[in-house]
Amino acid sequence: MKINVYDTPTVASQAAADAAAGILREAIQAKGHAVFVAATGNSQLEFLKHLTAAPGISWKHTTLFHLDEYIGIPSSHPASFRRYLRERLTSRVPVGNVHFVQGDAPDLAAELERLNAAIAATTVDVAFIGIGENGHIAFNDPPADFATETPFIVVDLDDACRRQQVGEGWFGSIEAVPRQAVSMSVKQIMTSARILCTVLEKRKAHAVKACLAGEIGPMFPASILRTHPGCDLFLDRDAAGLLSQAGRSA
Which of 171, 176, 187 is nearest to 224 (CA)? Predict the structure, then answer.
């Protein structure tokens, strides 16, 4: 893992977007197509803004897989991750193929089968992700399932995760936050050839420290990223505030 620390969230997000654009361009040039995974949340706002403004990406030659979605809410809901990505990504650039997670599908089992078949038929060139306040990646809250091979799974959301969604302004109360979601599994995320993880703000500092300085295991889901040879972590100074100098260069 390569750890990059920047003075401000804007600079960190721009650096992550520059790296992301380079990976997409290289994949398209090498094989004619790029497959990527996109996350949501406040840490991705500036990243996606810069990425969609990057020159030279033939977006029509890309395929997007959506990282996670709440179960039971429509795409019109203000907190829907499908809505988030439509507003901040697919309405700005002409992504060739889009695989959104339909969390309100009438037959959720069939929806999972569709997603799992689609992603099993390809190789993900790069996953754009973040780390939650509880250390989750996607919606894999602690203790995360490190073993399942299934690409998309149903997960229970813990209270810390649900409180984060309220704190970020996506829901008015914790009672309004769904208790379950469809999430890309840890093992599926780790099959990505490259992982670019952007983590911003002081409220994420404890999670960053736990995942980089603690043991690798399900209680610290993002700790698994340390085992991925192609993972780059982009932090602003606040998110990196509890790391030692040694930890910053890990």
Answer: 187
In the chain, the amino acid numbered 30 is A
Instruction: Find the range with the poorest average confidence among 103-107, 117-121, 142-146, 167-171.
Output: 167-171
Residue by residue, DSSP assigns the chain as: -EEEEESSHHHHHHHHHHHHHHHHHHHHHHHS-EEEEE--SGGGHHHHHHHHH-TT--GGGEEEEE-EEESS--TTSTT-HHHHHIIIIITTS--SEEE---TT-SSHHHHHHHHHHHHHTS--SEEEE---TTS-BTTBPSSP-SS---SEEEEEPPHHHHHHHHHTTS-SSGGGS-SEEEEE-HHHHHTSSEEEEEE-SGGGHHHHHHHHHS-SBTTBGGGGGGG-TTEEEEEETTTTTT--HHHHT-
User: 250 falls in which pLDDT band (50, 70, 90)?
Assistant: very low
> Percent of the chain scored above 90 by pLDDT?
92
pTM flag (> 0.90)? yes
Domains of the chain and any CATH numbers: 2-239 (3.40.50.1360)
* Residue-wise pLDDT tens digits, 226-239: 999 999 999 999 99
CA distance linking residue 233 with residue 248, whole number of Å? 10
- What whole-number distance in Å separates Cα of residue 207 and Cα of residue 211? 6
- HSE toward the beta carbon, residue 119, CA cutoff 13 A: 31
Strand partners, 236: 6
Does the pLDDT at position 12 exceed 70? yes
